[in-house]
Design brief:
The protein is of the alpha/beta class. The longest helix is centred in the middle third of the chain and has 36 residues, at about 225-260. Helix content is about 50%, strand content about 15%. The radius of gyration is 21 Å and the shape is globular. The protein has 3 domains: about 10-50 and about 400-415, no CATH class; about 65-225, Rossmann fold (3-Layer(aba) Sandwich); about 245-395, 3-Layer(aba) Sandwich (Rossmann fold). The protein has 17 helices and 10 strands. α7 (about 105-120) runs parallel beside α11 (about 200-220), α8 packs parallel to α9 (about 155-165) and α14 (about 300-305) packs parallel to α15 (about 325-340). It has a 5-stranded parallel beta sheet, with helices on both faces. A 5-stranded parallel beta sheet has the order 7-6-8-9-10, with helices on both faces. β3 (about 140-150), α9 (about 155-165) and β4 (about 170-175) form a beta-alpha-beta unit.
Length: about 425
């Protein structure tokens, strides 16, 4: 991983101890840094907050509830994203590579799926390190779209550098202004979300909105989307923030009660197909990050072919029942879970009476008007579930467990000081 300028939080700490030995690979947590992180956990440092809470309401629930307003604000970026779309078209781009780490990688997987539906271009997706290590160049004119909430994720910066060295046009979608990724990329659109908690919540949904808008504008500019279709999708996008607000108002108590019922599970298996493969992966990650409950994601057929031996009274399922081609097999996954005696939570669209009548627990989101927009609402639903599971299981959902110094040391071992 190439060493670059440090993010502000890391440089500020080093400046505070000018004579001290900096963190190294062999000593990732020197005594002076351990003392600092005992006062303010690592991920609070990275997010730039001194407001460290020890009980509900944690910062995360406030960040979750802030999302509808932030999603509305992202709609104002449509002209900037339209400009980016036209520059991609003018450059003759015909193939997109999406990359990122963690939640940004999941969003990149979704983006690769989305752009194949709304644009005529081919796509692929690679986790950042895999792109740098194993990517094979396409014969089509190619651009790299890199996502990073902080703009300082070392592996993603390496991926961008690799792409530039191979002559690719590079564009960044980020939630941090004046970041390292902005310096490296040819193009950058930033939306500072002001998120304070560690797990990616508002930084993720705001970038999903950016991806929707960029895909829509590419689809319009290339003629892939006809005027009526583009208008319908534009209208659906403008409704997403209101749908998110309605969900948070109507389902908060229900989700907290379900979390209380499921808090003693040994593991949870998330199931989603098509665009909601992203939702399943991100939901599993959020529950792990926020509640330290082991979770794994499957597509519907993968679940039915491989996970039946795993499910039990203490290994439950979370199944996304969005309308679309995956719906019938998702319903089979619900029925299979119930047959095995595993508790099953179904995430459905308001008005569903098939999967909802079969599952043990049901969480409903407003109709997003298009299956491809379900992931934005599913993401918020699973953030809420992870939050209440964490709070009820005795974990601080803000901290990514870096409020424990052993885990802070583990983070700094995995990601050297200032590389995240």
């Amino acid at each position: 991983m190439t060493r670059r300028r440090l993010p502000p939080w890391a440089q500020e700490l080093l400046d505070r101890y000018p004579g001290a030995s900096p963190p190294t690979t062999d000593q990732p947590l020197p005594v002076w840094l351990e003392d600092e992180l005992a006062q303010v956990p690592l991920w609070a440092r990275i997010r730039g907050t001194d407001d460290v809470r020890q009980r509900h309401p944690y910062l995360l629930i406030e960040d979750v509830r802030s999302q509808p307003a932030l999603m509305r604000q992202v709609l104002d970026l449509r002209p900037a994203l339209a400009d980016l779309a036209h520059r991609l078209v003018d450059q003759g781009i015909r193939h997109l590579v999406f990359t990122g780490c963690g939640s940004a990688f999941h969003a990149s997987q979704f983006a690769a799926f989305l752009f194949r539906q709304w644009t005529p271009w081919s796509t692929e997706c690679h986790e950042s390190l895999e792109f740098t290590s194993h990517w094979t160049r396409s014969h089509e004119p190619t651009a790299l779209i890199a996502q990073s909430a902080t703009g300082f994720s070392g592996e993603t910066l390496d991926a961008v550098t690799h792409a530039v060295e191979h002559g690719l046009l590079t564009a960044a979608l980020t939630n941090t202004s004046d970041s390292a990724i902005e310096e490296l990329c040819h193009e950058c659109v930033a939306f500072p979300a002001g998120q304070r908690c560690g797990p990616a919540v508002s930084v993720l949904t705001t970038r999903l909105m950016m991806l929707y808008l960029l895909a829509l504008e590419v689809g319009i500019a290339t003629g892939r989307l006809h005027a009526r279709e583009a208008d319908d999708l534009s209208l659906a996008l403008t409704h997403l923030p209101e749908a998110a607000a309605e969900f948070l108002q109507e389902e908060d108590l229900n989700v907290s009660q379900i979390a209380n019922e499921l808090k003693d599970q040994d593991a949870m298996l998330f199931v989603g197909g098509g665009p909601n493969w992203f939702s399943a992966r991100e939901g599993a990650l959020k529950v792990e990050e926020q509640s330290c409950l082991f979770s794994k994601a499957y597509r519907p057929a993968e679940f039915l072919h491989g996970a039946i031996p795993l499910i039990s009274e203490t290994v439950g399922t979370v199944i996304i029942g969005a309308a679309g081609r995956s719906y019938d097999r998702s319903h089979d996954a619900v029925r299979t879970s119930i047959a095995a005696g595993a508790p099953c939570l179904a995430l459905v669209v308001d008005g569903d009476d098939r999967i909802a009548s079969t599952a043990n627990f049901v969480v409903a989101v407003p109709d997003p008007h298009d299956e491809l927009m379900m992931p934005a609402l599913a993401t918020i639903a699973f953030q809420l579930l992870g939050y209440y599971l964490g709070a009820q299981r005795g974990y601080n959902p803000d901290a990514l467990r870096t409020d424990d110094l052993a885990h802070a040391r583990a983070w700094l071992t995995a990601f050297p000081f200032g590389s995240h």
